[in-house]
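>> received
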Amino acid sequence: METKEGPGQGPGNGTGGTDTAGAGETVVDLSVMARHPLGVRPCSLAASLDVLGERWSLLAIREMGYGVHRFGRIAGYTGASRDILADRLRKLEAVGVIERRRYSEHPPRYEYHLTEAGRELYPVLLSLFRWGDKWAVDEPALTLLHECGHELDIDHVCRHCGGPVERGRVEARVSRRPE
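>> returned
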């Protein structure tokens, strides 16, 4: 890897530079990742997809976000078979994305609700909605409106500086080396 040499060099400018960040971390331009030795990378995106990266899981989460909590209605609105949906709900519950709440004692019946981890997926789902509106369908099934009354237009910006979140403007801090 190249070392950072001065103003205009290194991370964020496409030169593939590095800089020491402290606590054993190294800052690198994202393009440096393409030159790492070939091998499965440890990655938070991969870990997220292990939990969520399946159609029926995300559609079940969508339905709970809409206020649909009972198994039969979730199955009906998603189109998932009952056995697949039951499996996905068990997995989402096991990792803490949803929780079951009993609503009937005899027979025992449960509703499914999003936990804090599940509710934090809302911006992710909105981003997928907007991407799908633009690239996957001819005409969106829904128009999402913000409380201000305007059509929702998601803008990914850095909370600290207000700058856009784009590939060329994001760097990575490598905190551990691939094994």
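>> The chain has six helices and six strands.
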